[in-house]
Amino acid sequence: TEETLVLVKPDGVARGMTGAILARIEAKGYSLVDIRLVEPDRTTLEQHYAEHEGKPFYEPLLDFMMSGPSVAIRLAGDRVIEGFRSLAGTTDPTTAAPGTVRGDFGRDWGLKVQQNLVHGSDSVESAQRELSIWF
Ligand code: ATP
User: Fold this and answer.
1) Closest ligand 1 atom, CA of 116?
2) CATH for 2-134, among 1.10.1200.10, 3.40.50.1980, 3.30.70.141, 3.40.50.150?
3) CA–CA distances in Å: residue 49 to residues 16, 34, 119, 135
4) How far does the centroid of ligand 1 lie from the alpha carbon of residue 114, in Å?
5) Residue ranges with strand state E in the chain
6) Annotation says 48 is catalytic
7) Whose CA is nearest to atom 1 of ligand 1?
8) Among 74, 119, 120, 121, which one carries the catalytic annotation?
9) pLDDT tens per residue across all 135 residues of the chain
């Protein structure tokens, strides 16, 4: 089995989509190992998003991620990393496929950061690194 870090980002929590997102995760058959409501400080987010430092959306991204609580989930299951990313859909919510979390629940709101509801680790190495940051 495998583990991944899923975040319901501040837009997802603020819009009351946490339950709907969890329902899709559970319906797919993955297991919730741990779950918590978190208000990350800047240092935590700098670690989490280290690969994006210096990009144009980096500061707006950190501000967005500090705009309200997120729900952090330790999720387990065979091939859960790619499975959750498939459920989430592509990064840009306006064009993410219908049927995905981002495609069904998200769109562009005219901001400098994509408010795309969820994060999911993209590799085994990222998952281990990110889980140790958030849990
Ligand atoms: P994916 O890996 O599928 O692209 P992700 O969530 O892992 O999804 P990253 O590329 O790691 O996306 O970017 C992290 C986050 O930064 C995105 O989820 C989004 O909120 C924001 N972001 C990424 N690219 C842009 C961009 N070009 N403009 C604005 N915000 C962006």
Assistant:
1) 20
2) 3.30.70.141
3) 24, 21, 11, 16
4) 7
5) 2-8, 31-38, 70-77, 118-120
6) no
7) 91
8) 119
9) 999 999 999 999 999 999 999 999 999 999 999 999 999 999 999 999 999 999 999 999 999 999 999 999 999 999 999 999 999 999 999 999 999 999 999 999 999 999 999 999 999 999 999 999 999
